[in-house]
Amino acid sequence: MSKAIGMIEFKTTATGVTAADAMVKTSDVEIVEAQTVCPGKYIAIITGDLSAVKAAVDTAVTTYEDKCIDSFVLGNPHESLFPAIYGTTQVEEISALGILETYDAASIIEAADQAAKTAIVDLIELRIAKGMCGKSYMMITGEVSAVSASIDRAKELVAAKGMYLDSSVIAHPDRRMIDSLL
Question: Which residues form the BMC domain (predicted)?
C-alpha cells in the first residue's frame, strides 16, 4: 500500500468539520491540517494508505456533496509538497521563479504536485487560501526551462478544472525581490 494525500474543501465550516470527522471515522487516516480558510471555507488535508484516503475523501464528498467545492486524492505525493505547505522549504539559490495562482485551495496542491513531478524544480511555498479571499498560489524555482515547463503543466491541470487565475515565470529575479520573498 502506498502513501497518499487527500483534501476536501467545503463552503462552510460546520459542514467541513462534520465531513472531516466522517473521514477519520471512515478510514485509518491522519489529519495533517483542518481549518477555516478565507472567506469562511473549510479545508481538511489527510494522509494514509491510498485506499484509506480514497475511501475517506469519497465518504465526505458523497455525504456532503451540496456543500463541497473541490476534493482530490493523490497517490505518492512529491516529497517537497509538505515542506512547501508549511513554509519550511530551505532554498539556497533562485535561478528562475515561477508563480501560479488559483481560485480555490484544492487545485493548488494538485498543481504543485504536478509541477514538482514535471521537471527538476523546488517548491518554495504553497499559500492555501489564507489571507487571500479563497485564492491560493504556489512558488517554484529551478532553471528557467524547468520552471517554465512545470508552470505550463500545472496551468493546464488547473485550467481544466476552471480554477486557473494567473501565472508568471521570472528569469533571474533581482536579489532584492528574492529577499522580500524568503
Answer: 4-86, 96-182
